[in-house]
Amino acid sequence: MARLLSWMVRAVWSxxxxxxxxxxGSRAARRFAAFGPGxxxxxxxxxxxxxxxxxxxxxTLIGGDITLSAGFVPGLDLGPRPLIRIGDGCxxxxxxxxxxxxxxxxxxxVYTGPHVYITDQNHVYRDPDTPIGLQWPADAPVRIGSGxxxxxxxxxxxxxxxxxxxxxxxxxxxxAGEYPDHSVIAGVPGRVVRRYRPGTGWVPxxxxxxxxxxxxxxxGSPDPADx
Length: 227
Known about the structure:
This protein is mostly beta strands. It is about 10% helix and about 30% strand. The chain has a single domain (about 20-205), classed as Hexapeptide repeat proteins (UDP N-Acetylglucosamine Acyltransferase, domain 1, 3 Solenoid). It has one helix at about 1-20; strands at about 20-25, 35, 40, 45-50, 55, 60, 65-70, 85, 90, 95-100, 105, 110, 115-120, 120, 140, 140-145, 150, 155, 160, 165-170, 175, 175-180, 185, 190-195, 200-205. The longest helix has 18 residues, at about 1-20. The protein is globular. The chain starts with a helix and ends in a 24-residue tail after the last strand. Residues about 215-225 have low confidence and may be disordered. One of its GO terms (molecular function) is acyltransferase activity. Belongs to the transferase hexapeptide repeat family. InterPro entries: Hexapep, Hexapeptide_acetyltransf, Trimer_LpxA-like_sf.
């Protein structure tokens, strides 16, 4: 009996994974400010609320165990404009979190690895005698340019403005600031470790595909297998 019940649970879960995603035109999709054709949110989601302030473009894929939240809690009136905008052709990795209170914008064809955290709000530490969780947080808009790739476990903090066709290496923490187009950002805190300049090429130059790195050398480019 236990084996039969276990098989039934696995069968229902497997069916749900294949068929219970949120798709354009469904009742769940109609709660969003925009939900483009060909877009889907995989089952199961972790937390989704504030849908009237979330816009999803066309042919965008949102992985399972995702958190998409606008505002602190469900049921708030967050004003006249969307707080989260995710463009066309994006892919947001499984277990990622996009948490907005003022503005998070992802351009078209932005891809992320799993477990990426993007937020436009952070705690402050102005008063050393008050618990940090009780201090009023600070907001700053976040923007990720079209064509960018965000590696697994990366954290994008309030005020980060990442340009077009950038790479954020796995486990990088990107702080507030402007990161130019065609940059590779890596480290904790993140910094630009490589950049493409028209007429010059990659600075520093890319390593030859078959070359072994010198002993003790640090190559700032992320390994695609890690992203």
